[in-house]
Amino acid sequence: MKQAEQTYQVTTKQGRFTLAIRYDARDKAYLVRVPNIPEIITFGETLAEAKRMGIDALELYCDCMIDEGKIVVDDTRKVIGRLPKSCAHVFSLQTA
Fold it and tell me: Distance from the CA of 66 to the CA of which of 36, 47, 78, 86 falls in 20 to 30 A?
């Protein structure tokens, strides 16, 4: 029987995000995913470790996106990172 997924709000150095965690009895591990960032999947042997691994994965993902000149939006709609100068005029035209 599949156990229900629980959601947790976590704060990282970049912002607030939701982690979805469920226990997998077959693997004897807590599986972690980030609903708004499907590229992030990790796990932990305990619930506390799973939360820490989720936060670490989120921080690494955000750091990589920022290093690549991309932006990330957290669950509170806070924008993390900066648009490249070459795109800034397009953004200002669209929001005007």
Answer: 47
Predicted confidence (pLDDT) per residue in 31-90, tens digit: 999 999 999 999 999 999 999 999 999 999 999 999 998 989 999 999 988 766 665 554
Give pTM, 2 decimals. 0.80
Mind giving me the DSSP string for 29-93?
EEEEE-TT-TT-EEEESSHHHHHHHHHHHHHHHHHHHHHTT--EE-TT--EES---HHHHHHHHH
For 1-35, the DSSP string reads -PPPPEEEEEE-SS-EEEEEEEEETTTTEEEEE-T
- CA-nearest of 70, 45, 39, 53 to 10 is 53
User: What is the separation of C-alpha 92 from the centre of its chain, rounded to a whole number of angstroms?
Assistant: 27
Terminal Cα distance for the chain, rounded: 52
